[in-house]
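Attaching the record inline, Q. Sequence:
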Amino acid sequence: MANPRPAKPDVADVFASPLVQFLAIARHENLTHAAAELGVAQSSLSRALVRWERGLGLPLITRVGRHVRLTRHGRALQQALLRCSEGLDRASADLSENLDGNGGAVALGFLNSLGSRLVPEILRAYRGSHPEVKITLHQGGSEFLHNALREGDIDLCLTSPAPDSPEFAAAKLLTEQLVLVVPPAHPLATRTRVALADVASENFLALPRGYGLRTTTEQLCALAGFTPHIVFESTDTATLRGLTAAGFGVCILAAAPDASDSIEIPISSPPASRPILLAWSTTRTESRATASLRHYILDRLR
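Structure, as predicted:
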């Protein structure tokens, strides 16, 4: 016999019992009616009210016969708690979606360079078969993505290199070939392959520190026996390509066959490539929506 699905969470009940109790008192202006709605003893509700007033050091109600009226402090508290209640209702709705195997929300992070082709291809196909899943997107360098994954700001990330921590798991999806990008008039522009040592004296354009490709660029140049003279940094690979085409320097980027203004030359020495990986946290419970997108990406690209 199948195990019953757990009841969908009521966030207000789980986390905000005093909030719910006070709003019931304010709504009914009658402790008996409020207690009946909440399913608690009136004496328990009365004691809670006394405890709140003592804790705040302010009178929240005045008693009028069998009824109560909110003081100005009580009315101010009511308005503040109503705003909190609205936020809890939204959170409850989000959690309910994530308990529903056919819906939910997932936050996906990805490298800037993957935003023009790979990520749109993945999302177009996934959303075609899972239109009910809400996907929020976050773009940045590998350091930003790994920190966001650690903090729980994103659920999955497409990154390179792999996060270096046991709190993450990562699966390789594909290998990107890296190329030397040069201006059309560059002396090496007609080469079919190039050794990085041939451009040791050139000005380089690069991504800022904190980006995996910047680290890879420095590592490749070190293997070729030099430290690159980086004259300009940008988080936008299109900007790097454009300035390279204009003659401001050379750069190392992932191959992009549709880039027409600059020349891409495969790097023969040292071997130049990078893995693209899908990473996720091993320390948090995975929602159904996150698991769905993770399995889809792994099945599609591995």
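The two ends are 35 Å apart (CA to CA). The chain has three domains: 11-99, 105-173+276-301, 175-274.

More tomorrow.
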